[in-house]
Amino acid sequence: MIIFLFLFFIGRDHMGLEDLVSMKWGNIASTLRWYHRFNDRLYSNTSLILSSYISDTSMEVLDMHNSLDTYIRKYGVREDFTWSAQGRHLVKFGFESTYNDLKSAEWDLNNYREKERRYAWENSFWVNEDWQAMDHLTVSAGLRLNAFSALGGFPLLPAGCGWGYT
User: Fold this and answer.
1) How far is CA 147 from CA 50, 70, 74, 87, in A?
2) Which pTM value belongs to this model?
3) 25 compared with 122, residue with greater pLDDT
4) How far is residue 100's CA from residue 111's CA, in Å, rounded to a whole number?
């Protein structure tokens, strides 16, 4: 048995005060999921994931325009397996990999522009076993390995170096 499922969400909000202040933010999220049953004991869920959060704030004061634009974008894949082993054992295992694109600030202050942008890659692997030892007792044990890699972007500087970033 094979089942495909597509999930999609979009939301936008806007709050402002006349021509002085404008705050806009929103999120777009989508997932394409594929469920596959290999046999009576083994099945998988494969997910392709996209998420994008944006924020845009601006202010007009004394003919000066100030704005701040940010976003967080995630692109990922996740694979979950479930295996009904012999007897009263259920084993779940899988992996997830996500690429992160983050613009934490793009300032436009009176023709002075500054931009902070960072990239990262997150990976996870896991295995878990549920053992029903008795009718009213289930023992669960698992192992999860996570790795986070900063791939670059605006440098993170130590506190007290004069730039104000920590």
Assistant:
1) 20, 25, 16, 34
2) 0.72
3) 122
4) 29
